[in-house]
Amino acid sequence: MKGFVRIPNRIFNCELKASELLVFCYLTSKKNHLSALTIRHETVANALGRSRNTILSAFKGLAEKGLVTQQIQYKGGWQVASQYHITHLPGGWFKLPRGIFRLQLNKSDFAVYLFVLRCVNAKDHGWPSTSQISQGCGISKPRVRQIGKTLASMLLISKAQYVKQCGAYGHNHFDVIALAVREALLKLYRKNRRQSIADVLWTAFYFLCPWLAIPIQTPVDLLSGLLKAKPGKDIFLRI
Question: Which value, in Å, is the radius of gyration of the alpha carbons in the chain?
């Protein structure tokens, strides 16, 4: 499980706020084999790009819901970093890449990304509806659609409208893009930033897609987002 964190499926049944969900997943990524860790609130805030007050509020909410237990520690009469125990939630789990925290996603963006991860199969394909995502994350449908576009522009997911055999529209078809694939695409983009659109597209198609088994339509969708990006402003260009 190197490079991944086990996130319990039942976490979406705990009615967590988006900030609480983000902090819970981060703490889970840092816990030891005894489900415990010693950490400061400032460390969590810096790692996630959130304010200290937001982190304090998230810790309080997690404690009230019984998901995190705090043990205050002292050394030489001074209070030091507290130890926290993460409550085990029985049942199934899904994989969350550890590297996702480096991107410091917005809490709502992270919640939607996490829910999509929960819904995909072993091949990283999933069909959660906008209603399911909205209900699971506690985010409005218009906001979910907006976040889907944001995550696609950041090369974290690709999204396509699923059409049934009868011709009717079904649930959205999501593909989760592995962070290794994302890094390869970004590296390719930086290297070929001055080339034409066609050069970048065909280079990605012939050399990257067969090796990583990416669907043919994915590079087209991804590069359209890359070409609209503003260096130094869009988050994925600052990595």
Answer: 20
Per-residue pLDDT tens digits for 49-65 = 999 999 999 999 999 99
Cα separation, 124 vs 178, in Å, equals 9
Confirm whether pTM is higher than 0.85: no
- Whether 105-177 and 4-86 are alike in CATH topology: the answer is yes
Residue 22: alpha-carbon gap to chain centroid: 9
Into which CATH architecture does domain 105-177 fall? Orthogonal Bundle (1.10)
Is 154:235 a contact under the CB 8 Å cutoff? Answer: yes
Pairwise CA distance, residues 10 & 31, whole Å:
18
CATH class of the domain comprising 4-86: mainly alpha
Q: What is the separation of C-alpha 148 from the centre of its chain, rounded to a whole number of angstroms? A: 12
Around Cβ 181, how many Cβ atoms within 10 Å? Answer: 20
Q: Are 159 and 173 in contact (CB under 8 A)?
A: yes
Distance in angstroms (rounded) separating the CA atoms of residues 153 and 226: 7
* pLDDT less than 50: residues of the chain: 1, 210, 214-220, 229-239
